[in-house]
Sequence to fold (142 residues):
Amino acid sequence: MLVELLLRHWKLDNASDIIGKIYNDSDKATIAALSTLVFAAARDSDEVAHGIVENAARELALATVAVKNSLDFSGQQVALALGGGLLLYEIDFRTKVIQAIGTCMSVGEVALVEEPALSGARSIQGDREGRLIGINLMKRSE
Fold:
């Protein structure tokens, strides 16, 4: 299904044309905008799309753990501030990310951050221990 969605999106006839579109004609924002198609295909049980989503959740969890370790939060519960369109509006993805993080470390309060500067400041103020990791995953439109 994902291939068909990509072909329709770019008005292509051949699946092999997708490679050229991705590597020759597209910038990062254009590729990021395809996340809508990937999530739609994953929800429709497309195995490749499902794998992409699962891998993205795991990689984001690993990055979060790396930040935690570099900040020396060892053995302590860590609050998360989640921002960006994918984590705010793709609820299934957000759940997968939080679950993946939870398998690697103890997760405290999870705050959704729609306005990063204001919400981030409030989250930090509210976290008396000062143990907060902010994750912002943006989906950029074309």
Summary: The beta strands are 78-83, 107-113, 132-136. Confidence is low (pLDDT under 50) at residues 138-142. The first strand starts at residue 78 and ends at 83.
